[in-house]
Write a structure and sequence with these properties.
11 helices, 4-stranded parallel beta sheet, globular, single chain, alpha/beta, 13 strands
């Protein structure tokens, strides 16, 4: 087995079982709910996802905090001291300074551990898109690839990691500056639902608008049908903002229409959920382009 450790942040929304199976070290990102700080551990030990979304539905306010350089350093240092190299897979620089801070940390660590290799990949991914990216990269490491081979593989696939989202409540996108106040009010009145994706720069971009919830869920599947690479043979991730039935509907559609056999469904954690809100559904897969 290649002697290096993959570190990432909890924005990837991976379950504890997957974190263990993939041999990842996950930094629990910070979110602030109603003025109190919490850590977003994969096992939800400080606040479970359902309670978080119920709070948002009741008018609660949440914000998030990037991983700072010192936190990345503290995460990596024990592995470097033990003689292991480190590969950091970070949350999209198009949405956070987390990746930039990882690069800063790597520079400091390189001076302290000149004999060790420390590499950073800006995933340009978010939520379980980042999780699926980590899944594929970790599998590459587990196949026996070196750190350099694994990093090159990560860079080669990251712009094939397709993210397609829809949200149920436009007011959360309004708070994040993704839609105007007028568009949020009118869209809510008319049941207009956006279909969004993460682009090649790692930004969340509205692509289209449809009328009604089911149409928006079908829109995710339609986008996958356009670009998915051999969908029957790949693992697909679906995440949701406390709306499991809608995620299961999307799963059923990709299985029926694209022959997908392996689907992982998991809640969207507070790091993304603070900005997308309850009722968000997202579909992630490998495609010919984003």
């Amino acid at each position: 087995m290649a002697d290096f450790k993959i570190l990432t942040d909890s924005c990837g929304d991976l379950s504890p079982a997957l974190v263990e199976a993939l041999e990842l070290e996950v930094f629990p990102m910070t979110f602030v709910y109603e003025g109190k700080e919490y850590r977003n551990y994969p096992d939800d030990r400080e606040m479970d996802n359902h309670s978080f979304y119920e709070g948002l539905r009741g008018g609660g306010m949440a914000t998030t905090v990037a991983v700072n350089p010192a936190e990345w350093e503290n995460l990596a240092r024990p592995y470097l001291e033990a003689g292991q190299d480190v590969l950091i897979l970070a949350f999209s620089s198009g949405l956070s300074v987390t990746a930039t801070n990882a690069v800063m940390a790597a520079r400091e660590l390189a001076e302290a551990f000149p004999e060790r290799k420390i590499a950073v990949v800006d995933s340009l991914c978010a939520s379980m898109g980042e999780g699926l990216f980590c899944y594929h990269v970790a599998k590459k490491r587990q196949s026996g690839a070196t750190l350099e081979e694994t990093r090159e593989y990560a860079e080669s696939i990251k712009l094939q990691l397709c993210h397609w989202f829809t949200v149920d409540d436009l007011h959360f996108l309004k708070r994040g500056g993704r839609v105007s106040s007028t568009a949020a009010v009118l869209g809510t009145m008319l049941q207009i639902k956006p279909v969004l994706h993460v682009d090649d720069e790692g930004h969340l971009i509205p692509v289209s608008k449809v009328r009604g919830r089911k149409a928006s869920l079908n829109g995710l599947v339609s986008e996958m049908m356009k670009t998915a690479i051999d969908p029957a043979s790949q693992t697909v991730f679906i995440s949701h903002g406390d709306c499991l039935a809608d995620a299961e509907y999307v799963r059923d559609q990709v299985q029926e229409k694209l022959g997908v056999r392996e689907v992982v469904i998991h809640p969207i954690g507070p790091v993304i959920g603070a900005h997308s809100g309850p009722g968000t559904v997202a579909l992630f897969f490998l495609g010919t382009k984003r």
